């Protein structure tokens, strides 16, 4: 078996804060077998492959702890759930997973997707049929009345092909955990709150402490990790007490929640990229501007900055996720923005944020301890980055800054294929975003007859 020697002028292992100078990595059979100073490296023999990273910084492959690979850059929940067959969504998901890989993300955690789509994409990649990132697959988001993913009116419910799975009794909840475990998920996603509020505006959890406790215990018994959507204090507290592995968002958590998270070892994945992109990119003509959604998100961000800074100071471990798969977070584009948010908004140093995006986020992957770091015995997923993200993490978002991606020691080439979004993503029957009353037509200068 031939080895690959990688000469690194500068190396960030994902386990330490400082970059190391003049290191050599040896990769054998998909694993790092040696990491150390070039002066003390093993001697290459005939047939070994030599790779020089040049001026690039060498980093572990990045991990996105929150990417929905079958959402298809959706413009709304109907895009996600109604348009496109499950089979088409899986094929499209594979294509988009490759775009994520090309951005330097060698591992993706999928916190909820329809049916067996992400499981199938993962299996096709793992079988060697296609190039792609490592995927922690999931199935439907376990939802309850009032939680995220129970979007549609009661008469629609959650048919099989949608992302949510309404489970309104403890028996149904446990059965869904078992169904997903048998289907082969890596993670179970539970929507702990969403759209139900008290008069004072605080979120009401969609499951009781007993319900989430029983689901998490069963998922863990079956060897599956659990991730939750949880904005409100109550949802975060219940999730932490139940031992949920990754709590997404947690924007309205308080000190009691933080204590419970520290006790249970729960991680937080803020996934603020989605909100930041909404408020910074969503233009005036978007429905989100008129409905007050953007204004609400702006307020949530201000609370989140304070909550999550306290969480960092208390020692809760952070993961990085982008919520890619929406029109405002398209695949392959903004994944590294979450790293920048940890630095800009939550007081992380660049090195701490990069550790969150590598060795810490890898913990949400199956056999996560074998990923996320450049260290002997771990899988040889690594990238070359032009520029110095340890000084400015923003360079990771610059087009072309990721100059090479290796997964299991194998260089990855993803063709930059153009596609027609109207055939791939914009499948809905939406035809107008405005209502053309006579008043509106006059206002727009489109019609004069009858003007007063
Ligand atoms: Zn999400």
From TrEMBL:
Matches recorded under CDD domains: Met_dep_hydrolase_A
Annotated transmembrane regions: none
Every Amidohydrolase-related domain range: 57-411
Keywords of the record: Hydrolase
Pfam assignment, any one: Amidohydro_1
Source species, domain of life: Bacteria
Keyword RNA-binding: no
Coiled coil, from the record: none
UniProt GO molecular function: hydrolase activity, acting on carbon-nitrogen (but not peptide) bonds
Keyword hit for Hydrolase: yes
The name this protein goes by in its record: Imidazolonepropionase-like amidohydrolase
Organism: Nitrospirillum iridis
The organism's taxonomic lineage, starting at the top: Bacteria, Pseudomonadati, Pseudomonadota, Alphaproteobacteria, Rhodospirillales
């Amino acid at each position: 078996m031939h080895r690959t020697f990688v000469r690194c002028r500068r190396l960030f292992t994902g386990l330490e804060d400082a970059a190391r100078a003049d290191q050599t990595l040896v990769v054998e059979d998909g694993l790092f077998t040696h990491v150390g100073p070039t002066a003390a490296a093993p001697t290459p023999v005939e047939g070994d492959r030599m790779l020089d990273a040049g001026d690039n910084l060498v980093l572990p492959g990045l991990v996105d702890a929150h990417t929905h690979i079958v959402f298809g850059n959706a413009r709304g929940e109907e895009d996600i759930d109604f348009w496109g067959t499950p089979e088409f969504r899986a094929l499209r998901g594979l294509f988009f997973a490759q775009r994520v890989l090309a951005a330097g993300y060698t591992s993706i955690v999928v916190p909820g997707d329809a049916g067996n789509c992400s499981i199938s994409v993962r299996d096709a990649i793992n079988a060697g049929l296609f190039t792609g990132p490592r995927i922690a697959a999931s199935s439907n988001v376990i939802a309850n009345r009032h939680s995220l993913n129970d979007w549609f009116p009661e008469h629609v419910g959650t048919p099989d092909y949608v992302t949510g799975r309404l489970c309104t009794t403890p028996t149904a909840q446990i059965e869904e955990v078992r169904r997903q475990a048998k289907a082969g998920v890596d993670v179970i996603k539970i929507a702990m709150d969403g759209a139900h509020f008290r008069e004072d505006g605080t979120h009401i959890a969609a499951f009781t402490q007993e319900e989430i406790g029983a689901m998490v215990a069963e998922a863990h018994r079956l060897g599956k990790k659990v991730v939750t959507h949880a904005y409100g204090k109550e949802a975060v507290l219940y999730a932490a007490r139940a031992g949920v592995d990754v709590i997404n968002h947690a924007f309205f958590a308080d000190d009691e929640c933080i204590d419970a998270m520290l006790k249970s070892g729960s991680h937080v994945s803020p996934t603020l990229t989605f909100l930041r992109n909404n408020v910074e990119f969503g233009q005036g003509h978007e429905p989100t501007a008129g409905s007050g959604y953007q204004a609400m998100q702006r307020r949530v961000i201000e609370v989140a900055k304070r909550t999550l800074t306290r969480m960092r100071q208390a020692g809760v471990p952070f993961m990085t996720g982008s919520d890619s798969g929406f029109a405002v977070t398209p695949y392959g584009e903004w994944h590294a923005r979450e790293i920048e948010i940890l630095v800009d908004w939550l007081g992380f140093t660049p090195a701490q944020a990069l550790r969150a995006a590598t060795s810490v986020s890898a913990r949400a992957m199956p056999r996560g301890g074998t990923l996320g770091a450049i260290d002997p015995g771990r899988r040889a997923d690594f990238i070359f980055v032009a520029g110095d993200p340890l000084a400015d993490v923003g360079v990771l978002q610059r087009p072309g800054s990721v100059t090479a991606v290796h997964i299991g020691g194998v260089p990855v080439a993803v063709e930059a294929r153009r596609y027609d979004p109207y055939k791939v993503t914009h499948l809905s029957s939406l035809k107008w975003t405005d209502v053309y009353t006579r008043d509106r037509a006059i206002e727009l200068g489109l019609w004069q007859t009858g003007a007063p």
